[in-house]
Design a protein that fits this description.
By secondary structure, this protein is an alpha/beta fold. The chain is built from eleven helices and twelve strands. The protein is 38% helix and 20% strand. Strands 2-1-3-5-6-4 form a six-stranded mixed β-sheet. A six-stranded parallel β-sheet has the order 9-8-7-10-11-12, with helices on both faces. A hairpin with a 2-residue loop joins β5 and β6. The structure holds NADP nicotinamide-adenine-dinucleotide phosphate (NAP). NADP nicotinamide-adenine-dinucleotide phosphate binds next to α5, α8 and α10. The site of NADP nicotinamide-adenine-dinucleotide phosphate has 28 residues, from α5, α8 and α10.
Length: 282
């Protein structure tokens, strides 16, 4: 019987997840498919109904994107310890009618960073204090980095610093701190945010980025964000958002199909082909 996978969120129309997962499924000849599950946030029953009917609909697992990464935790039978520690998930596995929540955003970000740098002992700065910031700051800390955080809304940033036992830093002090790693987890510089604010900018400029730094922006639309531009201007190594997107998807695939190794090159080629022809995200 064909098993269905997909992405739960709203909106999901522009998701890049189907191209990566369907390419992998087809390449390995698996009896499965990956669909879009657009769940209306205005309908109070919709998310619960979706999770209760996974068996009925032969759903083997699903990706979770905004705005459900935190609320979906309430519908799980079990969590992976990493998802529990972060308090959010992006992946659900239906194992023998029990839903298990995982967070491959965290491991995906880590894998993307490790393509360019080691993490133990590095002085790292996370910009932002939302769901992605929480996941990334947590895994950086667990990987042995010394983690600092700055956020527009200080109270929210300070609360996250306290929860994760990491350091707060003022925007004006970032330049002097000479960070080895800087990760932008905010939407600042994305097409969506630029359209809303009427301007495209970076939270920090080249003068605040050390030339030896490794810099990652997790935005995928566009890939060349103002922050990435500033990083290159500073002479830093820049990692664009599709690397995290790819690695979080590889992690998901291997959770859903534990006996199949994810065909990384196939997924990567599908992602880059889609990125060159679409204005998608997540
Ligand atoms: P979120 O929970 O809504 O958090 C957004 C954070 O960005 C908050 O800390 C917010 O600060 C800050 N922010 C928003 N607008 C800002 C502005 N104009 N100026 C300064 N700070 C601003 O979002 P999220 O789930 O963490 O996602 C963040 C971004 O990461 C999105 O663009 C998402 O698409 C992307 N993402 C990419 C991947 C990937 O695989 N590449 C995976 C997950 C997410 P306040 O606290 O002040 O509001």
């Amino acid at each position: 019987m064909n098993t269905t996978f997909g992405i739960v969120g709203h909106p999901v129309t522009h998701s890049l997840s189907p191209v990566m997962h369907n390419a992998a499924i087809q390449h390995l000849g698996l009896d499965a498919d990956y669909q879009l599950f657009d769940i209306d946030p205005q309908d109070p029953e919709a998310l619960a109904n979706f999770t209760y009917e996974t068996d009925l609909n032969h759903i083997g697992g699903f990706s979770v994107t905004m705005p459900y990464k935190e609320v979906m935790m309430d519908y799980m039978d079990y969590y992976d310890p990493l998802a529990k520690a972060i308090g959010a998930l992006n992946t659900v596995v239906n194992r023998n009618s029990e839903l298990i929540g995982y967070n491959t955003d965290a491991t995906g970000a880590l894998a993307a960073l490790k393509e360019k740098t080691e993490l133990p002992g590095k002085k790292a700065l996370v910009l932002g204090a939302g769901g992605a910031a929480r996941a990334i700051a947590y895994v950086l800390r667990e990987s042995g980095a010394e983690v600092f955080l700055y956020n527009r809304t200080e109270a929210k940033g300070q609360a996250l610093c306290q929860a994760l036992d990491i350091e707060w830093i003022e925007l004006a002090s970032i330049g002097q701190a000479a960070f080895d790693l800087i990760i932008n987890t905010t939407p600042v510089g994305s097409h969506a945010e630029s359209a809303e604010s009427g301007a495209s900018h970076s939270i920090i400029t080249a003068e605040a980025i050390a030339p030896h730094a490794v810099v990652m922006d997790i935005i995928t639309q566009p890939l060349e964000t103002p922050f990435i531009h500033e990083a290159k201007k500073a002479g830093a190594i820049a990692i664009t958002g599709e690397r995290m997107l790819l690695h979080q998807a590889i992690g998901q695939f291997e959770l859903w199909f534990p006996h199949a190794k994810a065909p990384v090159q196939i997924m990567e080629e599908a992602l880059y082909a889609a990125l060159s022809s679409t204005s998608s995200i997540d």
